Amino acid sequence: MAPKAGGDAIKANSSVYKDKSKPTDIRLSNINAAKAVADAIRTSLGPRGMDKMIQAANGEVTITNDGATILKQMSVIHPAAKMLVELSRAQDIEAGDGTTSVVVIAGALLDSAEKLLQKGIHPTVISDGFQKALQLALQVVENMSTPVDLNNEDALLKAAATSLNSKVVSQHSTILAPIAVQAIRAVMEPIVSGVGARVDLRDVKVIERIGGTVEDAELIQGLVIPHRAANVNGPHRIEKAKVGLIQFCISPPKTDMDHNVIVSDYAAMDRVLKEERQYILNMVKQIKKAGCNVLLVQKSILRDALSDLAVHFLDKIKTMVIKDIEREDIEFVCKTLGCRPIASLDHFTAENLVNVDLVEEINEPGGKYIKMTGCGQGGRTVSVLVRGSSGAVVAEAARSLHDALCAVRCVARRPALLAGGGAPEAAAAASLARASLAAPGADHYCLRAYADALEVIPSTLAENAGLNPIETVTELRAAHAAGAGGGAGVNVRRGRVTDMRTEHVLQPLHVTASALALATETVRAILKIDDIINTMN
Ligand code: ADP
Ligand code: MG
What we know:
With 537 residues, the protein is of the alpha+beta class. It has 17 helices and 18 strands.
């Protein structure tokens, strides 16, 4: 009996070992799932790309053209498809723009890889071949980029405008592009040793407001708080303000435990009320003594940050009070005003207050908001008010502005611009195709396949603009064939191939370089997977 059982075990083992089709099946299923994601957003690429209407489970509707936003909201189940969603997010974090391009490139690379697998080339060989191709492509795009001077506002404006071109709000790019450039220029800090400048996008606060049109977008050198003051009869405009930001509440204190106090006679009730009045009055007196006339109060989740009595007293001493400053906004408020949050009444003294030239409550049809300007002691921050007629429009305008801000930030970080319209991808493809001729063995196929995949960008731009993709790509290939194509790209307005630099379609080098690098990295990772294992839980 025993030898038989042993033989069975060997047979079973060898059959598992011989199951060679499984890794191939898994790989193909991964590639197909990921390609499906890329196909889903292909039509949104470029200035003539379509927009998507996304309906959430709660009925909320988003209209967008931004790859990262579309993918974020898509419910994706397949683990390999999720990798493309992650890829788009990675590009969003790294560069902020090019989130559609990166996924479209990854989709095309996977398609090429599938063909190479069918030729019998081993996945690891393809993966290495793609890495070599990436290095070459990066060199090509770097060589064709033109360095820019960060003081040259015109170049930055072009980068912002190209990014806005492909958005729903593209007709407002003349308003939004200068805002993006001014905002980034206001907050950037030049790197002392080296090129470029550091930009922290957290220093640009974009505030969305319904009402008005996208053209009413406004850049404010100061602080905007998107709600009204809490005062009932208090002042609505204060010049030469002394502002204090507090993190404690001006309302009757509560104990940590839930409890009831039963008050059974009027005298006792009177005492409780008197006590409360005295408590609040003391706080307000201290505020007045410090000379504060604008009080910002951090939002409290435990109890009312301000009691009615407190508002009444603050009205009387003519102090403007603005409550519900979100906890996550405190850092921005402090940086903008140059103040520190005051955590207890004992520290509410004159030296902890800051001077602001003007604090006013602005009343507009969409509601009231507070604007503080002339924050002399503050740091380098700006606020941008984005307006629009409906929630969907405002949200998309804000997202588009985010992309434009990111595009300008990319130029600040790595001051070089490339021609757009698929020019860098076409130039890299031409160069790779030439290199493939001399490459030995499987590399020949890999470089060639990578080159074909890169042409997906010009071909999709043409397709989305209603041009014939094959004709356009052939024309583009011919332009770049000799290696002197320069900025030849798909001119979607004129419907043919022209030099995009003369069209002023310029995009940051960092966006394209990062899209190529991240897409290749993800494709290489997908190729190396040969099994999916589910955990038990
Ligand atoms: P992404 O989310 O990847 O930024 P977009 O929809 O913004 O996607 O499209 C970006 C692509 O559109 C880039 O390849 C860019 O060069 C191209 N593009 C932008 N403006 C123009 C234009 N006016 N003509 C041709 N191509 C353009
Ligand atoms: Mg874009």
